[in-house]
Amino acid sequence: MRFITRRLAFYVVAAWTAITINFAIPHLLPSNPVEVMMARHPEFPPSARRALEIQFGLGHQGSLLHQYGCISTPPPRQPRHLGLNYPASVVTVLNNTVPWTILLVGSATIISFVIGTLLGIFAGWRRGGWFDKALPAFTFVQAIPYFFLAELALVLFSSDLHIFPSYGGYQLGDTIASTGPSSPAR
Questions:
Q1: Which of 73, 135, 145, 161 is the most buried (most CB within 10 A)?
Q2: What gap in Å lies between CA 26 and CA 35, rounded to an integer?
Q3: pLDDT in the model for residue 25
Q4: According to the model, what pLDDT value does residue 110 have?
Q5: Positive or negative: CA dihedral 87, 89, 90, 96
């Protein structure tokens, strides 16, 4: 019984922490999601701003504590709306995103297999050498969470080196400039 109580307490604390972080992040940003969407999609009419604010739950009057209370407890007898309603069907959204996911996962798997195999061959070939002794020191990379390593790679390759787009993807047939900031298709 003690084990179940501890687990339940852990899940309650984890849920409260997640709700608090999800509430705090948009309030700490210099702009709100509606301004970002309006900037990214200039074809949206100005009347869409208020509709998006209502859908995102922005523009509430009251203190931050009142707003936090409104977001952490759903209103009575109303279903909690946790996401956007997309005008496209699920099949359309999946058709647009699955090829990119397969391409990314497939290329990452192939690259990691080739690099890992080559490093293993080299370490085995030069057994007892400096590389074989230094390789275990780099196992700390395994402890880095993948999403954090991905964010670091995104910053490095998109913002600093301008090799990849920071969001969206290139369309087939796009010309990619070799210098300067990259221009994503979306």
A1: 135
A2: 12
A3: 79
A4: 96
A5: negative
Task: Specify whether the CB–CB gap between 164 and 170 falls below 8 A.
Answer: no
Distance, in Å, from the CA atom of 49 to the CA atom of 128, rounded to the nearest integer, reads: 65
Rounded Cα distance, 167 and 105, in Å: 17
How large is the average pLDDT for residues 73-97? Answer: 61
d(CA 19, CA 68): 9
Is 60 exceeded by the pLDDT of residue 158?
A: yes
How many helices and strands, by DSSP H and E, does the chain display? 7, 0
Amino acid letter for position 148 = F
Cα distances (Å, whole numbers) of residue 28 to 4, 24, 33, 125, 154: 36, 6, 12, 53, 22
Per-residue H/E/C for 95-120: HHHHHHHHHHHHHHHHHHHHHHHHHH
